[in-house]
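User: Quick sanity check before I run a bigger batch. Here is a single chain. Can you write out its predicted 3D structure?
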Amino acid sequence: MLPFRTEIRNSPKNQTIKVYINDTTCDKECKDLLDKISGIDFIEIQESVSRNRVEENITVFVKESADVNRVQQLIENKLDQHFAFD
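Assistant: Done. Predicted structure follows.
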């Protein structure tokens, strides 16, 4: 089982990327880690309301000028490095 997954969400105001981390105790640490990625406007930890999801998710608001697919890839790369086991 993967330690996280990401989903791109498009809304009328902002493109967002939802990051679902299996261990929600890591949410704050991962949020701080992702804050340094270019193309991100801001990040919030939100309560998940959908079924079959973890209790919380990290919602990444992407800058209007940024490519959401590129930002998603940067997030996944950073989290892969963070959760890598030697």
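The domain at 4-83 is CATH 3.30.1360.10 (Gyrase A; domain 2).

User: Great, the batch can go ahead then.
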